[in-house]
Amino acid sequence: MIALAWVLGTAAFTFAADKTQMIGAAPKPDPAAAQAPELTVPSVTGQAFVFAKGMLEDSGFAWRVVGHVHGYAGNQVMAQSPAAGTHVVDTGAPTIVLNLVRGKYAQNGAPQDTPSYTGTAIKLADVARPAVPKTKPVAKPAKKPAKKPVAKKPAKKQRSTKTPVKRTPAFVLPSAPKEPTDEIPLSVRADKLAAWIDSHPKRSSRNVQRWLYQHAWIVTGAEFGWWHGSQALETLITVDQKVERIWGIGHRSEKVARAALAKVRRRQK
Q1: What phi, psi does 230 have (nearest 5°)?
Q2: Cα(259)–Cα(158) distance, rounded to whole angstroms?
Q3: What is the separation of C-alpha 205 from the centre of its chain, rounded to a whole number of angstroms?
Q4: Is residue 159 pLDDT above 50, yes or no?
């Protein structure tokens, strides 16, 4: 009987050990993996609407215009919510609410109060961020002082052979914003738009929105007196004519571009 009891006990212990090895220890949750990526809201207050929405889209945000002033290219952003610098969770396309004021330029075309894609809700990162437990710092052993390196003569800086292109405005308007130097010139933007249209002959909602966005940027910048605006408008008119042929739209946009070109040429004299 004693031997039988000893055999049964040994078998039970072996089975329990095998079961533990089969199941394994439960994995510990990784708080870093559960934390969603964050975005920082850019500052677009005071910007022309055509530039503000481009800055938001490039930063991963959607936008929505509220109030009695609608989303025309030349209108200016009076206020934004959330404020610039706010950290939000990347929920896909967090929607920034914009309040606009009338600009000093005509409200041509149809307003665009929302983007062509669906925005997502705003979720503040400070609220969603999980608390990280504090750990006591581990004292590091004292290091021996390193030997001082022998001072070397600084190498002579080689001057760049490339000189930055200075963008001289075609004319100066007191209320117009300066041309952003971190953006490509209007003439280059128009050339890129022409090449893009050549590679996208199929009309779609996304393609039309991109063309209209670039169109509004070039027209608005040229009316502000930015560098090579008239040259960009001439290219843009050619692009609009091609859009009319392959997409069946663009006649109204061509009229806007021609009116802007006539205005720019008058102010250049």
Answers
A1: -65, -40
A2: 48
A3: 20
A4: no
Cα 86 to Cα 29, 39, 60, 89, 93: the distances in Å are: 28, 8, 14, 10, 15
- Alpha carbon distance 133, 125 (integer Å): 18
Which residue is associated with the tokens 């027209």? 219
Kindly state the tokens that stand for 37: 């990526």
Report the distance separating Cα 145 and Cα 148, nearest Å: 9
Query: Which pLDDT band holds residue 205 (cuts at 50, 70, 90)?
Result: confident
- Measured between alpha carbons, how far is 106 from 135 in angstroms, rounded to an integer? 60
Structure confidence by residue, pLDDT tens digits, 16-35: 545 444 444 545 555 544 56
CB 85 within 8 A of CB 112: no
Query: 175: how many CB neighbours lie within 10 A of its CB?
Result: 9
Rg of the chain over CA atoms, in angstroms? Answer: 31
pLDDT of residue 21: 47
pLDDT higher than threshold 80 for residue 211: yes
pTM of the model: 0.54
